[in-house]
């Protein structure tokens, strides 16, 4: 419930470019996790 309200708050407050920046950072972190996981599995 609080999570949905928080998302609605971010939707109403944050400009579009900020949302895109957050998505980009999340994608970079995901790629970093995947790449580090691959290096761990290889070594």
List keywords for this structure.
43 residues; 0% strand; mainly alpha; single chain; 2 helices
Q: What do these coordinates show?
A:
Keywords: Glycosyltransferase, Transferase. One of its GO terms (molecular function) is glycosyltransferase activity. This is Phosphatidylinositol n-acetylglucosaminyltransferase subunit p. By secondary structure, the chain is an all-alpha fold. It has a domain at 15-43. Helices cover 91% and strands 0% of the residues. The chain has two helices and no strands. The chain has helices at 2-13, 16-42.
What is the H/E order?
HH
Strand content: under 5%
* Content-based structural category: mainly alpha
Radius of gyration: 15 Å
Low-confidence stretches: none
Q: What is the count of helical runs? A: 2
Shape: elongated
| Biggest sheet details | none
What is the helical fraction, as a range of percent? Answer: over 70%
Mean pLDDT: 78
CA-CA gap between termini: 43 Å
Task: Give the tally of β-strands.
Answer: 0
């Amino acid at each position: 419930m609080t999570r949905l309200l928080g998302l609605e708050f971010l939707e109403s407050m944050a400009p579009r470019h900020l949302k895109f920046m957050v998505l980009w950072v999340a994608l970079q972190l995901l790629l970093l996790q995947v790449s580090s996981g691959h290096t761990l599995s290889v070594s």
